[in-house]
Design a protein that fits this description.
By secondary structure, the chain is mainly α. About 50% of the residues lie in helices and about 0% in strands. It contains 3 helices and no strands.
Length: about 80
């Protein structure tokens, strides 16, 4: 499925069960209930400590490659 530049593409929304699972996971990393709720609702996370933990988590998973499978690196890598 192609799309042109400037076109908004929105995926299928997550189920309530999946959102609760994400909140539970975030709570286990030390993020507050309010911060986890703001995150899954795609609202700005207001608590500075929650923002720091989220940034650390995102860096660890996406930037440092923790859990990255070799097959998603693309051809030629």
């Amino acid at each position: 499925m192609g799309f042109t530049r400037g076109e908004l593409v929105v995926g299928v929304p997550l189920t309530e069960g999946r959102l609760e699972f994400i909140i539970t996971g975030l709570l286990s990393y030390g993020i507050s209930q309010e911060g986890a709720k703001q995150f899954v609702e795609m609202k700005p996370v207001t608590e500075m400590n929650d923002r720091r933990i989220l940034l650390d988590l995102v860096n660890r998973v996406f930037v440092d490659g923790s859990g990255r499978l070799p097959r998603i690196l693309g051809k030629g890598r």
